[in-house]
Write the structure tokens for this entry.
Amino acid sequence: MEKLSHLINQRVNTWDWKCEKISREGPHISHIFFADDLILLGQGSVTQAEKINDCLDTFCNLSEQQISFPKSCIFYSCNTNERVAKIISEFCGSPLTKNLGKYLGVPLIYGTVSKRTYGVMVEKVQSGLAAWKSDTLSLAGRVTLIKDVTFALLVYTMQSVKLTSDICLKLDKLNMNFLWDHTDAKKTTHLFKWDTVCLPKKRGGLGIKRMKGMNHVLLAKIGWQILQNDNGNPRDARTILVAWDLPNEGYVKLNVDGGCTGKLGFVTDGGVLHDHLKNWLEGFVLNKGFGSVIEPKF
């Protein structure tokens, strides 16, 4: 799969593969890999479909592997002409879809996130807690189950997407009712406020975490990993046209430059090698990590 990633990056660098933005202010992404599953992103045109298919054919010839196109699917946005989408589907041999389904239990959403989107998570936690009879467990046992069951079921989803406040409140309510053995048929007295229960043990609480706070922490953790990892995640790149002089006939010219996102941010260097006919011969991009605005000049 690493070789396929290199092939895709080569075509992106030469503008053969035109990748798309995942949001208005987001980075350009051409591919996402996870184990043996992958998502390829490109412009919705027949030309781009041919470029992508050619890249996959090259990879198959090098690796002696085959891609099951009938088992794959093509998702297209509402901005893509349906006639063009059908032509792309026939060319690639993969069916069209308007719903990418779920991956590892997390819905692959295109559109607005609503209460119904992650309502199944509430049902999952509810069924997980209902499998245990809370009235036969001690308070310590119920606390342990809340931490083990609820967090184990939600940890992957919560570090992937931002849940709505309504979903987080419903999850907190499920945990609260299970902790105090409270049901619709059996009303019980809550001995402490939920704010107190969610405090750390050293501050007099039970160490149960609020769902909204847990969601924010897990998302922040992923964001921090993106900031620290130079190779594992995409970086936003913008094209800036600059004036330069052609080299003399028979010579080549190397133009280098660097950039930084703000006074302190991601630092990158890059360069291109041209001949006197304006042919692009070679290029490179160097990610230097996090630094100041003067770093690209050295």
Q: What stands out?
A: The chain has a mean pLDDT of 79.
